[in-house]
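Hi V.,

You were right to ask for the full record rather than a summary. Here it is.
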Amino acid sequence: MREGAGWILYAWFMLIVAGSFAIINGIIAISRSSFFTATGAHYVVSNLNTWGWFQLILGIVAVLAAMSVARGGAFGRWFGIIVAGIQLLVQIGWIPIVPFWALTIIVLDMLVIYGLAVYGGRSEAA
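Predicted structure:
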């Protein structure tokens, strides 16, 4: 087993899990946006329905990135890093609504970025 294989497996798994939860959160925010508004959060840019669409689209892209990471190669590595970074930024918008969950996903995305940046580009020959 090559060095860092656990980090790549972690990145793959977390992209699938975070993407799946983003899809679920997006569907909930789009269909029943009053589900999240019990905290009374206010948005400067848009509303919760728009954030739900961001979550849904990003969740689908995150699952695609996980498939690309599983195939290996430089494209999968960079695609996973970019998607995890964007997902991290989108989670900042969810902090007023679900702070613990958003901060948890932010930390997990940071670890995905670390794993892919440090170990994602190594080939089997190295």
